[in-house]
Amino acid sequence: MAGFGYQVLGFGSGETPKDPYSASWLVIAGGGSGGRTDAGGGGAGGQQTNFGGSAYTFTPGVTYTASVGGGGAGITVNSTNGNPGVNSVLSGSDITDVTSLGGGYGGGAGKTGGDGGSGGGAGSYNTGGGGGSGTPGQGNDGGSGAWPAGAPAHGGGGGGGSNAAGTNGAANYGGAGGAGLANSITGSSITRGGGGGGMANNNDGAAGAGGSGGGGAGKDASPGGTGDANTGGGGGGVSYATSGAGGSGVVILSVPTESYSGKTTGSPTMGTSGDNTIITFTGDGSYTA
Q1: In the chain, N or C: fewer CB atoms in 10 Å?
Q2: Secondary structure (3-state) at 204
Q3: Among 70, 38, 108, 91, which residue's Cα sits nearest to residue 283?
Q4: How far apart are CA 156 and CA 170, in angstroms?
Q5: Is 15 a residue whose pLDDT tops 80?
Q6: What is the mean pLDDT of residues 55-70?
Q7: How many other CB atoms are found less than 10 A from the CB of residue 182?
């Protein structure tokens, strides 16, 4: 008589349960948008990872949920702050949730940048302080704006990046966005989380560059640069056009291929790096270990 086999996959009757296994993650929030009218650049979305550090333990049968934050929308109203980015979260019933904070908005004329994962740059005319504050372990501060005494020229501060603060604005020069941070969880070193550049008055060429890793450039009378998708890059500040939108975030998981269950929701992109399977969420979804 034919025998009856079984698969070693789960916890059903007659099945052998799998062991818990180590997993690495990268969680990046959406970037903030730049402000409008003599404005600062948006801050990068907060970036957190345990890659290269202490691994989390995933338990077979437990579902781990990825919520991916969008970037802040660009602004068309004069003298207005940008919009903050949206948080990204990795959660599960047996792990400490990882919440990366959305990037701070770029300040409009006379306004400070918003606080966030990385802080937004301040607008020029600013007398109330510098750029927004970044969150320790996630990002850096935005730069301050400039309105030099007796000078008609001014510049907005650059948004903070995951690896460096935004540059301060100066006379007719927008501050550059702070640099992003490189990570090799996918098997290749990729820099993400650049801050948005600040505007420069009446001189596009002197506007602040976007930070490496997806930050959008500042502009004067043309639309601000948009933060790159799935990097959490900040958007560029402008004077007389639509400010740059922030880039969306991303959640990436790396699990041993021998333990990978194949059970996902949403539409993650799958890949491999050495002995690991890489699961990249650019929208909300989940993985059941």
Answers
A1: N
A2: helix
A3: 70
A4: 8
A5: no
A6: 96
A7: 15
Cβ 38 vs Cβ 46: under 8 Å: no
Residues 212-240: tens digit of each pLDDT:
999 999 998 889 999 999 999 999 999 98
199 is a domain residue: yes
| Angle (CA) 14 15 18, round 5° | 155
pLDDT at 146: 85
Number of domains in the chain: 1
Sort 241 into a burial class: Cβ within 10 Å, 0-12 / 13-18 / 19+: middle
Query: Rounded distance, CA 152 to CA 157, Å?
Result: 17
CA distance 158 to 162: 13
Please tell me the distance from the alpha carbon of residue 253 to that of residue 265, in angstroms, as a whole number. Answer: 14
Query: Range of 225's domain?
Result: 21-289
Q: Residue 69 in contact with residue 86, Cβ under 8 Å?
A: yes
Q: Which residue has the tokens 């640099």?
A: 179
Structure tokens at 181: 């941070």
Kindly state whether residue 146 falls inside one of the protein's structural domains. Answer: yes
- How many other CB atoms are found less than 10 A from the CB of residue 168? 25
153-173 pLDDT tens trace? 678 999 999 999 999 998 888
156 contacts 122 by C-beta, under 8 angstroms: yes
What percent of the chain is modeled with pLDDT above 70?
Answer: 89
d(CA 224, CA 218): 5
- pLDDT for the residue 129: 61
Tokens 């008055």 correspond to what residue? 201
- The backbone torsions φ and ψ at residue 34, rounded to the nearest 5 degrees and listed phi first, read -75, 160
Total residue length of the chain: 289
